[in-house]
């Protein structure tokens, strides 16, 4: 099959013919229909993710069509499915408690095993997969493997965002846009922060009430002013120190910070304003992915039009365009995300 391989960090991905994946007893092999290009892929591509070695095939935000099913998998050839990036084992204490994103034996394609920048992918532990609804295109559904589900679980499974509360979103990339759209659907008032005017304007057009350009400084003070005392929930969606502190400091007393951006490599350890946490009596949540049993509730919101995920996807690209898209994460980006839908091109 055709796949994009990291042969050298920060260099163009190598387009190669590699052996087709073999399925596992409890898994499926998917023909990849769409794979989002996520900032987490960029962390691997620059060499800052401990699990992404040279020779890796990136790609963890995908959906596909079953071409082979193991004897223990309940899917059939021809089924179209969405895969959460965390494929949990279903057996460990965490899985049995329902907290499957913390599974001790989880498998994550693209991080330690072959990902979906390829024509085919092996997805073990296929009990995690969800059926791709007919009314959702593969390009839109790909985000339900990572960014849309991460945002949904951050707000509903972790911070328990309530209607009428102020939600601050630091960074309006794919997960940031998802946070905005889901936050609005939940009845929250949303303030977004970014450094790209075009992205701020895009967020305002999608229902953000306030858009703050971080280049003008004083982000936390301006959010506190705009929200009449601070955000109730603030989500950091980039994974760097400045925005993490901005997120903590923009909260009102007893506010909830959620760390969605991936701190890894040189940002794995940060200097955090712990005095704000203490004095304002803040809550800090880490979050990563979404337990797969939560798919029905999110898919229902999408099916009923309560959440419209279309504005998240800016363009569909070919596999050979992935290098350009990864490089784009180095600098300011236009609104919306890129999704690979052409694996021959
Ligand atoms: Zn991702
Ligand atoms: Zn488990």
Structure overview:
There is one protein chain. With 345 residues, this protein is α/β, with parallel strands linked by helices. It folds into 2 domains: 2-146 and 290-342, Medium-chain alcohol dehydrogenases, catalytic domain (Quinone Oxidoreductase, Chain A, domain 1, Alpha-Beta Complex); 150-286, NAD(P)-binding Rossmann-like Domain (Rossmann fold, 3-Layer(aba) Sandwich). 26% of the residues lie in helices and 23% in strands. The strands form 3 sheets. Strands 3, 4, 5, 6, 7, 14 and 15 form a 7-stranded mixed beta sheet that branches. A 6-stranded parallel beta sheet has the order 10-9-8-11-12-13, sandwiched between helices. Helix 4 crosses helix 5 (174-185). The longest helix has 12 residues, at 147-158. The model has no long low-confidence stretch (mean pLDDT 97). One zinc ion is lined by residues 38, 40, 60-61, 146-147.
């Amino acid at each position: 099959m055709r796949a994009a391989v990291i042969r050298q960090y920060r260099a163009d991905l190598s387009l190669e013919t590699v052996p087709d994946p073999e399925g596992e007893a409890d898994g499926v092999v998917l023909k990849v229909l769409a794979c989002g290009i996520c900032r987490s892929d960029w962390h691997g591509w620059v060499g800052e993710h401990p699990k992404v070695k040279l020779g890796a095939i990136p790609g963890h935000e995908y959906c596909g069509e079953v071409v082979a099913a193991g004897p223990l998998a309940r899917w059939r050839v021809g089924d179209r499915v969405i895969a959460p990036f965390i494929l949990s084992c279903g057996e460990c204490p965490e899985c049995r408690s329902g907290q499957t994103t913390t599974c001790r034996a989880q498998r994550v394609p693209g991080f330690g095993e072959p990902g979906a920048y390829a024509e085919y992918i092996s997805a073990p532990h296929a009990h995690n997969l969800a059926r791709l609804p007919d009314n959702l295109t593969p390009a839109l559904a790909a985000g339900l493997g990572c960014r849309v589900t991460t945002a949904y679980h951050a707000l509903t499974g972790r911070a328990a965002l309530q209607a009428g509360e102020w939600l601050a979103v630091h960074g309006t990339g794919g997960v940031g846009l998802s946070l905005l759209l889901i936050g609005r659907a939940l009845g929250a008032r949303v303030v977004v922060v970014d450094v790209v005017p075009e992205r701020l304007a895009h967020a305002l057009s999608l229902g953000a009430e306030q858009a703050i350009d971080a280049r003008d400084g004083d982000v936390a003070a301006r959010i506190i002013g705009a929200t009449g005392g601070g955000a109730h929930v603030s989500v950091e969606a980039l994974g760097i120190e400045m925005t993490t502190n901005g997120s903590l400091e923009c909260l009102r007393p007893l506010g909830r910070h959620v760390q969605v951006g991936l701190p890894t490599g040189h940002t794995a350890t940060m200097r955090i304003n712990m005095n704000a946490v203490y004095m304002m009596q803040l809550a800090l949540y880490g979050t990563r992915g979404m337990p797969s049993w939560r798919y029905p509730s999110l898919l229902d919101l999408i099916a009923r039009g309560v959440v419209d995920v279309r504005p998240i996807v800016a363009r569909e690209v070919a596999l050979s365009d992935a290098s350009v898209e990864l490089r784009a994460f180095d600098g300011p980006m236009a609104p919306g995300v890129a999704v690979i839908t052409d694996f021959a091109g």
